[in-house]
Each structure stands twice: as structure tokens, then as C-alpha cells.
Amino acid sequence: MGFERVELRCPRALDPHQSWTLGDVLAELDALDTTTRHAAPPTPLKQPPDWSSNGSAREKAFVMRVDDDEDDTEDEDEDGIGDGESRALVAKGARFFCNGLESSDSEDDLDGQIEPYHLMEKRTLEKSILLELEREHHLKVQEEVRSKLAALEVGHQNEIQRTISAFARLQKYAESRKEIDRRLDVHFQRRIAEVLDKHLSMVQRDHEQKSQIVERRIRDDAALEEAKRKEQAVKEEKLRQERARQEAEARQKEAAKLAAETRKTAFEAAQKEAAEKEAAEKEAAKLREAAASQSSQNSQNINAGIKVFADKYALEAESQRRALVHNQVPENIHLRKEFAKYDRQIAKSISKLMPTTDSVRARASELIKALDGQDCPRPIACCLFANKIISIVKSRNTKDKTFGNLAFACGYVMLLVANQVPDAMDYLLAEFNRVCTYTVPKHLHALNAQARNKDYYRLIGYQEENGQLESTESYLTYVVAYVKLYAAMIQTEIKGVRHPHGLAEGWKWLALFLNALPATTATACALHAFLKMAGFALHKKYGSQFLKILDVISRCFLPALKDQGNKMQSEAANNLQNYLNDKIYLQEPEGQYLVQQLLSKELFM
């Protein structure tokens, strides 16, 4: 039997490359094992003996072919390949010389399967030793390869462990760095906060120092001003004392002259006192004469077919106001040149009046300054002021919804001016009574058609233009406007300011109006205008008493007005009825509270 020399695929001094992986080494071993198992039969080391070449059929060698791929053969067997087909696959193969082999009677022979035999021929000692050495070398190489594979695997595992350990250390280092960075961040934030707090403290300290410096300057300036004022007062006191001394010296020098003229002075004083008494008696006579003329006029009016509806107290107050104006103010003052300047000044100031706080404050200051002037007598200035502010009814559009706001603004101006110039209120009331008899309150009623002439209409307040009297609608519009302005002045209240003709006078006017005046179109319009402007304030002050007044209007005044059946009277009655039904007196008039609040806070608080 022959042997085949097996050469290793690698040198005997195996030195695997360090870059090989475990998979590469295992794949190499599998390839080596497969090559060894599937390799061709080895070539015998020597020729077969001579006996194998004789022609005897008994010693003749047999040829058997074995497929290299055993797995394929097994698969084919499993697929049902028969003995005939197996014999057809036999081809040339290695020759085996079987001398002295004993046949086997086992069941394997019956199945057609041949047991493999490892047949060896007799060889020499040297060859056997050589074969043993080769086998030992082969085993040694395998052992070395296994040991190196194990070493490589251990090194690989150690490398993995080192890598894991390195990653763990790296992660731990990263976490420690994060912690250090966090601590540094907290530290830096704390430092920044401390620096910012220190900076803000410095800024605050700087502001406080500046404020102290400014306050010190203000105090110094105030002290300087006070010192100047005191110095000025001392100088004035010295001047006053000097003048007093000079006057005393002058009086001493003239003492002799004065002693000589004492009798003369006493005589002149007696004459002056007599003259004053005579003037007072004349003035009293004029007042009595005016009252008598008024009563005679009333009697004349009654005799002429005109009946006066008014309370005695209201007529006396009107007469006194008319007499005051007649005695203190000359006639046609608007046409006199010496007063034209003041007339234009007052008219210009009133024309700029608007229903705003700033406008009211500015106009009141200008008018107070004008009335306190030394060049124009106060009665004349007050008369001009009353005439101009009440004539705003003619210069503005009274049908506009904003006229109510303007009326409230005029009321505040009147109150502020009357507070500084008390005489102005008497002239305002006298002017109201002159332009509108219902502000007295007073109503002139024509008893017959003959009495309803131009003189009657002029007497009750109709305006004449180009020889023609205005229409009744226009007349009623002006009546409503004048009464609204009068009511706005009455209900005006400012904290800290005394009203000489306030809500108490408005309550008195309302009582006199309902007690003395009849229910007509003009009186209904005047009553509705008054309630619309002052009803809220009267209800706020008098409460249930005011509701009783409204009940009188509902039970007595309105039925008497509706019985007349006139279209204009019906409209006036509807206005009053709506006022009562809708309880308008509970609603604050537009433009009243805002102006009052601003004035109370800005001017007098």
C-alpha cells in the first residue's frame, strides 16, 4: 500500500498574522480539513510487487470509484439510487492490492457495501520512522495552531475587556467632566450674580448720591430764595419805616396847620355825612319807585289784557336785580368806546370755551382776571360777562346734542367766576331774568286776542329780525336753551367752592314754578329742560321729596297740559311723560360727572 506526502499550506514555522480574526482562522482550518478529506488517494511510495502483475484472476487488483462528495452520495442514496446506478458511477480509481484478505460474511456484504480497510505494505524502519515523524510533526503543527488560536482568542477577549474597561473609564471620565463643568457653571453663575449685584448696588448708590446732590441743591436753592425773600422783606420793612418816619415828620411839621384847620375839617365832614345820608335816601326812594313801577306795570298789564303768573317772592327778587343793574350800569354800555375793549376781551375768552377741563380752567382764569381789572368798573365788567356768557345760546347751535356738555362747562365757569367775584352772580341772574322770564319763574298770559300784539310777544321774549317776529318753534328752542343753561349753573357743585345760587335755589324755583305757572307749551318745554339738566342732582340730594314733586307733575301738570289738545302741547306732554316713565332722573346727564370729577381733583384737591 502506498503513501502520499502531505504538504502543509503554510510553512512549518507557522506565524499567523496578527491582523487575522478568529473567523478567518476557523475558515482556514475548515478549508484544510475539507482538502484533506476530499483529496485524491496518495501515490504509493514504491511500485507494487511483481506478484501483483501476474494474470491470475485471484490476485488481480480491482478498481473502485468513490465520489469525492460523500454528502452528494448520501443524498443520492436517499433519493433511491439503486445498485445498478451505483455500479455505473464506478470509474478509474486507485488500485488496492489485497493479498490474503479474508472476506466477511456480514450483512454488509449482502447489502453491497464494502467495509474500508487500511491496507499497508511492509516497509522499512526508516520509512516508518519518517512516517511517524511526519505524523508527529502534523500533530505538533495542529497543536501549535490550536494554542495560537486559543492565545488569539484570549487576546481578543482581553482586548474586548480592555475596550469595555476603556469605554467605562471614558464614560466615567465624561460624567466627571460634566459634573466638573456643572460645578464650574454654578460657580461662574454665582460669580456673575455677585458681580451683577455689586454693579446694581453701585448703580443704586450712585443714583442715591445723585438724588442727595439734587435734593441738597434744591434745599440750597430754597434756602437761598428764602434768604433773598427775607432780605427783600427786611428792605421793604426798612423802606416802610423810613416812609413812616418821613410821614411822621411831615405830620409834625403840619401839626400846626392841621390844628388851625380842625374846625374847617369838622365842618366838611359834617357836610359829607349829610350828603351821604341824602344819597342813601335817594337810592331808597329809587328802589321804592322801581317796585312801585313794577307793581303798576303788572296792574297795567292786567288792565291791558295781560295776566302775570308768578310768585310774589320771585317778582320782588326780579325787581331788585333789575334795579341793581339799572343803578350800577349805564345804558347801552356795548356801544361805548371806553368799554369796547373789555367787551371784546370777554367775548373772545367765552367764544373759546369748550366742554373740557383745560378749557374750563383757562377760560375761568382769564375771566376772573378781566373782572378784577382796575381800568373797568366791576359792575360794568360783571354786566358784560353775564351778557356774553348767556348770549352763547345764540352763538352756538342749541339743537346739537353737544350743547348739554357746553351748558355744563358754562355752569362751571359761572361758579368759578362767582366764587372769586361774588357780585357776578347777581348780574348773571338779572341777565337770565331779562332774556327768559321762565328763569324768574314768571309767565305772561294774554287774556284776549287784542292783547296778543307785537309788544306782548316782545315782552315774553320773542326776538325780532327785519321787522318780523321769530316763529314759535324758534322761540321755544331758545326758551329750552336758556333754561338748560340756568339749570346747569344751579346743579353745578365743586368741592371746596360755595355756590351762591345752588340746588336749594333750584328746589325753590321748581316749587314756585309748579305753584304759580299754568300748564302751557312754553312752561312744559321749560319744565322738561330744567328736569333734564338738574333732575339727577335734585333726586340725589332730596330723594323722596323730589319724587313727590314728580308725582305732582304727573297728577296735576300733565293732565292740564293734555286737555288743551294742541300738537306742540302734545309733543311737550309726551316729553314730560317719557321723562317720568323712563325715570331719566336716575341717569346722570352726559358731560356732567367727567368735568366735575376732573375739576374736583385737579383744581381743588
From TrEMBL:
Where it sits in the cell: the answer is: Nucleus, Nuclear pore complex
Protein family membership: Belongs to the GLE1 family.
One GO cellular-component annotation of the UniProt record comes to:
nuclear pore
- What top-level branch of life does the organism fall under? Eukaryota
* Compositional bias (Basic and acidic residues): 227-289
Note one Pfam family from the annotation: GLE1
- Record's keyword annotation contains Nuclease: no
- Lineage in the entry? Eukaryota, Viridiplantae, Streptophyta, Embryophyta, Tracheophyta
In its UniProt entry, the species of origin is given as: Urochloa decumbens
Query: What residue spans carry the region label Disordered?
Result: 37-56, 64-84, 227-298
Q: Write down what this protein is called.
A: mRNA export factor GLE1
Supply the alphabetized keyword list.
mRNA transport, Nuclear pore complex, Nucleus, Protein transport, Translocation, Transport
| Major localization class | nucleus
Give a GO biological-process term: protein transport
**Regions of compositional bias (Acidic residues) in chain numbering:** 67-82
